[in-house]
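Troubleshooting log. The previous structure file for this entry was overwritten by mistake, so regenerating from the original sequence record. Sequence copied from the archived sheet and checked twice against the printout by T.R.
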Amino acid sequence: MLKNRLLLGSVAFGISFSISLITGQTLGMAGVTGLITVPSTLIAVFVSDRRSERQAQTRLAQLKRQIRALHQKRNNLLQSLEILEVEREQLEADFYSWQDAVDSLQSQNAPAPAQKMLSWNLAALNALPPAPEAPDQLLLPASQELESSSLALKQIHVQVAEQRQLKAQLNQELGKLKQQKSQLEAQTAHFQTQIQGLEKRQAELNQAIADLSGKRQAVEQNASPLKNALQQLQAQVSSLRGELGQLESEILDRRTHKDQLEQEIAQLTTQKYLAPKATASVSVPETDKPETSTELPREWTELMVQLPEHELQVIKVLAEHRQPSPILKKIADDNRTVPELLIDAINNRSLKILGDKIITSGFGNDKVAIAKQHLKHVKQLLKTYEYLTQ
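Regenerated output below.
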C-alpha cells in the first residue's frame, strides 16, 4: 500500500511540475507547486478510503441486522417445530391409546379363535367383518376419533416436512450470510490497516507541508534577486533584439546591393555577347590578362551570374589553396551552414548548367578540389568576376 501511495505521489508531483513549467513558472516555483500537490492528492485518497470504509461498515451493520433477524426467525421456527413435535407425540400417544382401547373392545366382544389385531392401516378398519350391533355402537366413536387423529397426524407430518425444508433454506442462507460477514470483516480489517497507514502518512505529510512552507518562504525571499536579474536579462534581450533588427536591415540592404551587382554583371555579360566580336569580349588589362586569351564560354558565364558571392569564394579557395579546410569552415560559419552543403549547392548548379560537377570530393575537406577538366575555365571565371567587380 505504501508503494502505491508513493507511486501516486510521484505521478501527481510530475504532472503538477510539468504543468507549472509549461505555464511559464520558474523551476523553483514549479517544484514548490509539485510538492504542495503531493499531500493534497494523498489527503484526497485518504478521504476517499475513509468514505469507502464507512460505506463498508454501514453495509456490514445492515448484514449483521439481517443475520440477527434470520437468527430470530430461525429460533421462532425451531420453537414452532418443537411445539409441533410435542403435538405430534401427543397425537401419536392418543392414537396408540385409542388403538389399545379398540383392541381391548374387539378382544372382549369377538370370539377367541377369530380374534385379530387392529391394523395400522385406517382403511382396513372399514374392511373388518361386521360385529354385533352393540359393540359397533361402542366402537363407532372411537373409530371416528381415531380417523380424525390420523388426519391430524398427517397434517402435522406435512407441516413438519415444510418446517424442515424451511429450516434447511434458512441454514443455507445463514451460511451465505456468515460467509459474507467473514468477507466484510476481512475487508474491514484491511481498511483499518489502510486507515492507520494513511493517518501515519497524513502526519508525515503535515510535517512535510510545514517544512515546505518554510522552504517556500525562503525561496520567495531568495527569488527577489532572481527577479531583478530576470528583469535585467529581459532588458538585455530587448536591446539585443533591437540590434538584431538593425543587423537584419543591414543584411537586407547588402543583399539588395548584391542583387543589383548580379543584375549589372548579367547586363554586362549580355552586352558582351550582343556587341561585335572585336568589342564583345571582356577587356582585361595587360597586367591582369590570363595566360590564354580564350573567351569564357556562355554556359560558364551563366554559372558565374547564378553563383552567389560566398559560393564564388568557395571556388576561389579551392582553386588557390592546397589545404582549404579552415577557410571553407570559416565561410560556412559566416553563412550558417557547413562546407559539405556549400559544395553540394555549387555542384548542383554546375550539373544543371554544365551537366557535370566542377568540384570533386574525397574523405575530409582537404581532399576537396576543382576537377582537373574544369580547372582552366574555373580560373578564367574567377578572373572575369574579379575584373567585373572592380
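DSSP finds ten helices and two strands in the chain. Archived copy saved in two places this time.
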